[in-house]
Amino acid sequence: MIHTLFILHWEGNMIMNGTIISIGLESSADKCGVGIITSEGEILANERSTYKPPIGEGVIPRDAAEHHGDQFPKLIAKALQKAKLEPSEIDLVSFTQGSGMGPCLRMDAIAARTLSVILDKPIVGVNHQVAHVEIGRLLGEMDDPVVLYVSGGNSQVIALSENRYRVFGETLDIPLGNCLDVFGREMMLDASKAPMGKVVEDYARLSDEYVELPYVVKGMDLSFSGLLTATTRTAKSGKYSIETMCNSLQETAFAMVTEVAERALAHLGKDEVLVTGGVAANSRLKEMLNDMASEHSSRFFGLPAPTAIDNGVMIAWTGILMHQNGYRQRIEDTAVRQQFRPEEVELIWR
Ligand code: AMP
Ligand code: MG
Question: Does the predicted model carry a pTM greater than 0.90?
Answer without folding.
Answer: yes
